[in-house]
C-alpha cells in the first residue's frame, strides 16, 4: 500500500513470478485490497465515500467511478477488491454508516449492482460484504448478534447481495456476526443454500479478517481449530483472510483425521480456480508498470472525483436564502472550524496524489470576486468522551501480571495506540491463568493543542490508579470505580507527558478506557473575533466514526458545539458544513440558517464545497438515510410496516429531522396548468 503505482505494479509482478515459477502447480495468485471509494494505496484517486456516492442517486455516475477504481486497481496487479459494502443501515449510530449506501434496499441494490458490473468488466473480482446484516445489531452495534425473520432478511438485507451477484461479483465476504446463534462464517444456509443454490453464485466466499478464528474465540462454537475449519469449509467458505490460521495446519489435520473429505477440498479449490480463469489471470498474470503510472491519479479521474463530489453534497437548511453566497454583498468572510483547512477522506482511504481543503477551495473562488477571507480553526477536532478513544499516545506499553497486585515479573507485554480495553469476563492474555489479574500501562501523552483538558477514566470490574508526570490523579485501587472519573488538567501543545495507569480485576465485567475532551480553548475567542468582523461565517465540523467506532451519542464533540454557539451569538449569517459520514444532532441545528452535509467528499472535495457555497454548482445530493432529531428515535427508517397504534413518543415526534431522500436545491420549481384525465 505504501508503494507508488509503478513500484506497486512491479511488486505485484514479482509475486506472480514467485507463484508461477516457485510453486508445484504454478498457479498465479489473487492479490486483494480495499477499494471502497478508491484503491486503498498511495497515489490512487480518492473519490467521495460510499455514503456520499449513494447520496448522488446517480447509478451512471457511480458506475463510471467504479470503472475508474477498477482500472487503477488492476493496473497495480491487484485482482480483488473487498468492496462494495451493501449492508443496510437502519440505525445511524453504526460507525460504519459511512461505508454503506444507506438504509434502502433498492438504492443499495442499484449502487452495488453498477459497482460490481464495472469491476467485472475490468477483470477485477468484486467482493460485496458483509453477508449478512452486519451493522444492525441492537443499539447500532457493529457485528452483534442478529435475530431476524427470514422475511425481513429477504425483503431488506438480501437484495443488495443478490443484485451484486447477478451483476458479476465473483466473491462474497462473510460477516463477523451470528444469525440466530449461528456464526455467518459457518452458516450453510447463508453460504450455500441461499448464495449458491438459490442465486446461482459461481464464485468463492472469503472470511472477514479473522472471522474463522472468531468461530472459536468470539462465538465459542468449538474450542478445536480443526473443527472450526470443518464448520467453515463445509458451510461454503473457501478462503480464510488475512492469513491461514485455521485453513493452514488445522485444516490439513482435519483432512488427515477424516473430518473433511477431499471432495469438499476439491470443490473449494475449483471455485477459486474458476474465478481466476474468469478474470483472465492465467492468460495475463502480469501488468505494465508504466500503465499504472499513467492511470493512477490521472486528471481524468480527478475530474470524475470532482463531479461525484458536486453531485453528493446535500443542502439541508437554507433559511432566508443565505445560500448561495451573494458575491455582490459579501466582501468579507470568516472560514472557521477544525476541518476548515484539512480534508478527511473517510474510512478505507488511501493517500491520493492531491487533496483540496475547503479553505483552499474557498480562497480560489473568493479571490475572483475580491472577497477577503479570514481564517481561524477555532478548536481542534476533539474526540468526544463517548467514543471511548483516547488522545495521541506514543510508545504505550502494556504489562500483564498473573496476580492482583502487579507483583513479580509480567507474564506478557504488548503495545497499543489507545486505552480502550474490554476484557469482559475472560482473561486479557493467554498467559494469564487467574481471574484476579493486574495490568500496568505506561507511555506518553501528547496534546494536539494547548488548553484545559478533561480526562475521563472509566474502569469496570476492578480498581484503578492514574498518574500524569508522576502526579497521582485518580486513586480507586481498593474499590471498583462505579462511575467515570473526570479530571481537568492544563496541557501544552506538543509537550510529552508521562502517563501511567494500573488496573486490577476484582469481579464482574472488566474494562478500562481513557478518553478526553477540551473544556477551555483560546482558539474559540479568535474565531468569534473574525466572525464578528466578517459579513458571513462558514464553520466546518466533523466527528469520530468508522469501523469499531459506533456512536451512542450523535452530537458533535462539545468543543465544536461551543464553537458554533459562540459564533452564532455574534454572526447570525452563519453556515455550518458537516464533513461526516452519518447524521449529527444538536440544538444548534435549529438555530443555524445554513446547513450543508458534505460527507467525506474525496480528494477534490474542497473545490466542490466552495463551488456549492458560491452557487457555481447546485447541491445535487439527497439523503440516503433518515436523519433523527435525537438518539431515542433510533432505529429510524422510512419503510417501516404499519403500526397497530401510534408512531410517536410523549416527548418526541415520530417524524425525522430530515427524511430519507431529503435535499434542497438552489433551483425553484413551479407546477402550473395541472390537469387530470379520466379513463
Verbal overview:
The chain is an alpha/beta fold and 679 residues long. Among the domains are: 299-381 and 521-633, Rossmann fold (3-Layer(aba) Sandwich); 385-520, Galactose-binding domain-like (Jelly Rolls, Sandwich), CATH 2.60.120. It is 28% helix and 18% strand. The chain contains 18 helices and 23 strands. Helix 1 (5-21) runs antiparallel to helix 12 (289-295), helix 3 (59-75) packs antiparallel against helix 12 and helix 13 (299-312) packs across helix 18 (605-613). The longest helix has 17 residues, at 5-21. The model is unreliable at 383-392 (pLDDT under 50).
Q: What is the annotated CATH architecture of the domain at 299-381 and 521-633?
A: 3-Layer(aba) Sandwich
CATH homologous superfamily assignment of the domain at 299-381 and 521-633: Glycoside hydrolase family 3 C-terminal domain
Helical content band: 25-40%
Strand % is 15-25%
Shape: globular
Low-confidence stretches: 383-392
* Count of beta strands: 23
Strand order of the largest sheet: 8-23-22-21-9-10
Whole-number mean pLDDT: 94
Biggest pleated-sheet summary: 6 strands, mixed
Broad structural category: alpha/beta
Radius of gyration: 26 Å
What CATH calls the topology of the domain at 299-381 and 521-633 is Rossmann fold
Q: Count of DSSP helices?
A: 18
The first-level CATH class of the domain at 299-381 and 521-633 is given as Alpha Beta
Query: What gap, in angstroms, lies between the N and C termini?
Result: 63 Å
Amino acid at each position: 500500500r505504501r508503494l507508488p503505482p509503478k513500484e506497486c505494479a512491479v511488486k505485484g509482478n514479482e509475486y506472480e513470478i514467485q507463484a508461477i515459477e516457485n510453486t508445484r502447480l504454478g498457479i498465479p495468485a489473487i492479490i486483494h485490497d480495499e477499494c471502497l471509494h478508491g484503491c486503498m494505496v498511495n497515489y490512487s484517486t480518492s473519490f467521495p465515500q460510499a455514503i456520499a456516492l449513494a447520496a448522488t442517486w446517480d447509478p451512471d455516475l457511480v458506475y463510471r467511478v467504479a470503472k475508474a477504481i477498477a482500472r487503477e486497481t488492476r493496473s497495480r496487479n491487484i485482482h480483488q477488491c473487498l468492496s462494495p459494502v451493501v449492508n443496510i443501515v437502519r440505525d445511524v449510530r453504526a460507525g460504519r454508516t459511512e461505508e454503506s449506501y444507506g438504509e434502502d434496499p433498492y438504492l443499495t441494490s442499484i449502487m452495488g449492482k453498477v459497482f460490481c458490473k464495472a469491476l467485472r468488466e475490468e477483470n477485477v473480482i468484486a467482493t460485496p460484504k458483509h453477508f449478512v446484516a452486519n451493522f444492525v445489531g441492537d443499539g447500532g452495534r457493529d457485528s452483534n448478534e442478529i435475530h431476524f425473520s427470514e422475511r425481513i432478511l429477504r425483503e431488506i438485507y438480501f437484495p443488495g447481495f443478490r443484485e451484486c451477484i447477478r451483476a458479476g461479483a465473483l466473491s462474497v465476504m462473510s460477516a463477523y456476526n451470528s444469525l440466530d446463534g449461528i456464526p455467518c462464517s459457518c452458516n450453510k444456509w447463508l453460504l450455500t443454500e441461499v448464495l449458491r443454490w438459490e442465486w446461482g453464485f459461481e464464485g468463492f466466499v472469503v472470511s472477514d479478517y479473522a472471522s474463522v478464528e472468531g468461530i472459536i474465540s468470539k462465538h465459542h462454537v468449538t474450542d478445536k481449530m480443526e473443527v472450526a475449519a470443518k464448520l467453515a469449509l463445509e458451510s461454503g467458505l473457501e478462503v480464510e483472510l488475512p492469513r491461514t490460521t485455521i485453513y493452514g495446519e488445522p485444516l490439513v489435520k482435519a483432512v488427515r483425521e477424516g473430518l473433511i473429505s477431499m471432495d469438499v477440498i476439491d470443490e473449494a479449490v475449483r471455485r477459486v480456480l474458476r474465478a481466476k480463469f474468469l478474470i483472465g489471470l492465467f492468460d495475463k498474470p502480469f501488468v505494465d508498470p508504466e500503465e499504472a503510472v499513467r492511470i493512477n491519479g490521472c486528471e481524468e479521474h480527478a475530474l470524475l472525483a470532482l463531479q461525484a463530489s458536486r453531485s453528493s453534497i446535500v443542502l439541508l437548511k437554507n433559511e432566508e436564502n443565505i445560500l448561495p453566497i451573494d458575491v455582490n454583498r459579501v466582501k468579507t468572510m470568516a472560514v472557521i472550524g477544525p476541518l476548515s483547512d484539512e480534508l478527511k477522506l473517510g474510512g478505507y482511504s488511501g493517500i491520493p496524489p492531491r487533496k483540496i481543503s475547503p479553505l483552499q477551495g474557498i480562497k480560489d473562488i473568493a479571490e475572483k470576486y475580491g472577497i477577503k477571507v479570514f481564517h481561524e480553526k477555532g478548536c481542534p477536532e476533539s474526540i468526544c468522551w463517548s467514543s471511548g478513544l483516547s488522545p495521541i499516545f506514543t510508545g504505550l506499553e502494556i504489562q500483564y501480571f498473573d496476580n492482583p497486585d502487579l507483583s513479580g515479573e509480567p507474564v506478557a507485554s504488548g503495545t497499543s495506540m489507545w486505552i480502550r480495553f474490554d476484557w469482559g469476563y475472560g482473561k486479557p492474555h493467554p498467559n494469564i491463568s487467574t481471574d484476579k489479574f493486574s495490568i500496568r500501562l505506561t507511555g506518553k501523552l501528547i496534546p494536539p493543542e494547548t488548553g484545559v483538558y478533561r480526562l475521563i477514566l472509566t474502569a469496570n470490574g476492578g480498581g484503578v490508579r492514574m498518574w500524569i508526570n508522576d502526579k497521582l490523579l485518580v486513586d480507586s485501587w481498593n474499590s471498583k470505580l462505579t462511575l467515570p472519573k473526570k479530571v481537568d488538567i492544563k496541557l501544552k501543545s506538543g509537550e510529552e507527558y508521562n502517563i501511567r495507569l494500573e488496573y486490577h480485576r476484582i469481579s464482574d465485567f472488566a474494562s478500562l478506557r481513557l478518553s478526553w475532551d477540551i473544556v477551555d480553548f483560546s482558539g474559540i475567542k479568535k474565531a468569534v473575533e473574525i466572525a464578528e468582523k466578517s459579513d458571513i461565517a462558514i464553520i466546518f465540523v466533523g466527528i469520530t466514526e468508522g469501523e469499531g467506532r459506533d456512536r451512542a451519542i450523535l452530537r458533535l464533540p462539545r468543543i465544536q458545539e461551543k464553537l458554533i454557539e459562540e459564533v452564532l451569538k455574534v454572526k447570525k449569517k452563519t453556515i455550518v458544513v458537516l464533513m461526516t459520514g452519518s447524521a449529527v444532532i444538536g440544538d444548534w441545528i435549529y438555530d443555524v440558517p445554513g446547513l450543508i452535509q458534505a460527507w467525506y467528499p474525496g480528494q477534490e472535495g474542497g473545490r466542490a464545497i466552495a463551488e456549492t457555497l458560491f452557487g457555481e454548482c447546485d447541491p445535487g445530493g439527497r439523503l440516503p438515510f433518515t436523519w433523527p432529531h435525537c438518539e431515542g428515535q433510533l432505529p429510524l427508517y422510512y419503510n417501516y410496516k404499519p403500526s397497530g397504534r401510534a408512531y410517536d413518543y410523549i416527548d418526541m415526534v415520530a417524524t425525522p429531522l430530515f427524511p430519507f431522500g431529503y435535499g434542497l436545491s438552489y433551483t425553484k420549481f413551479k407546477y402550473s396548468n395541472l390537469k387530470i384525465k379520466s379513463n
